[in-house]
């Protein structure tokens, strides 16, 4: 079993920055591909960014490309989401997710992930 705990959410004005963290425990963190998703009120949970295990290969949704960056520190069992130039439409609960994969793959679809955190709220005011 894997436990994921997100932190770093909060309130910020448009144009500001936040860095989300997700700490994993329970199994070897470095065997997992990781991802970030978000869910706004009344909307489906959507993909934000993903990172592979073996080579740190990343992929970002078009809506956040150039503004958000996913990264990981396997020594700290932590994955990060650096969010810059935030917009009101980025307001959502942000979730991290994990899937066992020790290779070069990343995953962009919800059902491909096995474990989820409880979420952290990000609110961007105009």
Report a brief summary of the structure.
It contains no helices and eleven strands.
Structure overview:
- The protein is mainly beta and 126 residues long.
- Helix content is 0%, strand content 50%.
- The relative contact order is 0.32.
- Strands 2, 4, 5, 6, 9, 10 and 11 form a seven-stranded mixed β-sheet that branches.
- The model has no long low-confidence stretch (mean pLDDT 94).
- The protein has strands at 3-7, 10-13, 18-25, 32-39, 46-51, 58-60, 68-73, 78-83, 92-100, 115-116, 120-125.
Q: How widely separated are the two ends?
A: 40 Å
Give the helix/strand class. Answer: mainly beta
Biggest sheet character:
7 strands, mixed
Shape: globular
Layout: helices, strands, pairs:
Layout: E1 3-7, E2 10-13, E3 18-25, E4 32-39, E5 46-51, E6 58-60, E7 68-73, E8 78-83, E9 92-100, E10 115-116, E11 120-125
Parallel strand pairs: 2-11
Antiparallel strand pairs: 1-3, 3-8, 4-5, 4-9, 5-6, 7-8, 9-10, 9-11
List keywords for this structure.
0% helix, four-stranded antiparallel β-sheet, seven-stranded mixed β-sheet, mainly beta, globular, 126 residues
């Amino acid at each position: 079993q894997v436990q994921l705990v997100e932190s770093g959410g909060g309130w910020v004005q448009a144009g500001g920055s936040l860095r989300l963290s997700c700490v994993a425990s329970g199994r070897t963190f470095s065997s997992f591909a990781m991802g970030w998703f978000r869910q706004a009120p009344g909307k489906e949970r959507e993909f934000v960014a993903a990172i592979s295990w073996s080579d740190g290969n990343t992929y970002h949704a078009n809506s956040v490309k150039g503004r958000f960056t996913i990264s990981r520190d396997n020594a700290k069992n932590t994955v990060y989401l650096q969010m810059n130039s935030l917009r009101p439409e980025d307001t959502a609960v942000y979730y991290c997710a994990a899937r066992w994969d020790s290779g070069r793959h990343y995953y962009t679809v919800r059902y491909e992930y096995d474990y989820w955190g409880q979420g952290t709220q990000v609110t961007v005011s105009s």
